[in-house]
Amino acid sequence: MKIAIVGVGLIGGSVAITLREKKIAEKILGVDKHEGNLQKAVQLGLVDEGVPLEAAISRCDIIFLTLPVDAILKLLPSILDQVDNQVVIDMGSTKERILQSVADHPKRGRLVAAHPMAGTEYSGPEAAIHNLFKGKMMVYVDATNSDEDAFEAADAITEHLEMHTTFMNAREHDIHTAYVSHISHITSFALALTVLEKEKSQGRIFELAGSGFESTVRLAKSSPDMWTPIFKQNRENVLEVLQEHIKQLQHVHHVLNTEDYDAFYRLIKKSNKIRRILK
Amino acid sequence: MKIAIVGVGLIGGSVAITLREKKIAEKILGVDKHEGNLQKAVQLGLVDEGVPLEAAISRCDIIFLTLPVDAILKLLPSILDQVDNQVVIDMGSTKERILQSVADHPKRGRLVAAHPMAGTEYSGPEAAIHNLFKGKMMVYVDATNSDEDAFEAADAITEHLEMHTTFMNAREHDIHTAYVSHISHITSFALALTVLEKEKSQGRIFELAGSGFESTVRLAKSSPDMWTPIFKQNRENVLEVLQEHIKQLQHVHHVLNTEDYDAFYRLIKKSNKIRRILK
């Protein structure tokens, strides 16, 4: 099987590593508008060669879109225009606007919208790692709009990536990711900014930063090129959850300000219920 | 050397593990008002026996206070009353109020105020682990108020724990920890509450929770018994940083609401500077 990876970064590169390891791909072609990324991806052995998008589409059986979501939105209609029986797998982090943009496309059935809930705070081909997807969740979005054979081909790959699977519609997907992924990034960005700002006046504040701080702030290392378009496309859901989160923080502030320590205790106790979710 | 661990939880238990491994302690006595904790600590081999506080003080050379900070505040004066030449090491997470409470105590010199910047989101004797402190930072607070021999004895132990060291006064310590530790816990509590609340209406929202979410929310598993007193004692500093953090989040909200994506991009880019701090 010939595989195209359009966008040879963390996600695309990590897909390539597994498909090569498992000998699923007889050939892997890389596409990237950044020539440097493409060269690195070839050097690292992630892809066999770098080619233009059109060549990748015509020469491959499966085309992975592992690009920032603004690029997916822009390229997807013309990619489907060029598709015959190939399968296009969109791995972007937002779905509603992207899927709306090709809702009436005659080749919509060749597209499988899938979001692997896996990643790190790093980006680019050097960030690609073994087993990034193993044991993680692949979310299929509006799966009934894909041709059966296209879906089966994508799902076979998900199995090779050793992922669990779930199904939802685009609207649900975008709301849920706002709550369990996008907001986490915003809290990390804001926490980093708060502390970096304070460092200016207080100096050596980071000497005391332990693993708790690192854990809550590590997502602030995430790429603005990848994340700005995600927030743009999922703006309304993110605004809603951000509003609610600010309200929660204002409540914490109020409880502490009024020295209602019983309420503070109950508030922590209630948040402990997250133990049910996390391992 | 005989060692007393007053409060046999995550921190006290982890100190005990290392001191026993390195054969520093010929005997380790445990003190805990929760009889169950004490029994567990003996069963786990963290301490040799459980004894009352008074017995631990009179029989030991070094007394570790690894208790919630409200208990330290309450017990410290009477502990110093009972001390002759022993060294008392206070390992609490706040310092200003605790040190004020014994500022004029005739035995103040026997006290070494130290805060190991190490921990996990778990608590109790079962949470104690090997190498919890290795490579982490030990902050000595108001060290010049300790007798030289008391400080040297404490510092020898810090060396056995394989920690780095730094010095600051109580006020600096409490401000810095508000920024790089206490606020991280509040953002995690609030994030957990935000998402747990949404789950009630949206259902299976956590299916999509990946490692990013887990990382930002894991501190919400922290014990309310330990953390409520910390926020009580460090209330003013925490209120200040929380206010600033809410302002940052409101700014993010504003930028997204007005669709100023250039500003949003710059904001992420700026927060990326945290890379300088984190490994």
Automatic annotation (TrEMBL), chains A, B:
InterPro entries: 6-PGluconate_DH-like_C_sf, NAD(P)-bd_dom_sf, PDH_C, PDH_N, Preph/Arog_dehydrog, Prephen_DH. The keyword Ligase does not apply. Residues 1-279 form the Prephenate/arogenate dehydrogenase domain. The keyword NADP does not apply. One of its GO terms (biological process) is tyrosine biosynthetic process. Keywords: Oxidoreductase. GO terms for molecular function: NAD+ binding; prephenate dehydrogenase (NAD+) activity; prephenate dehydrogenase (NADP+) activity. This is Prephenate dehydrogenase. It comes from Parapedobacter composti.
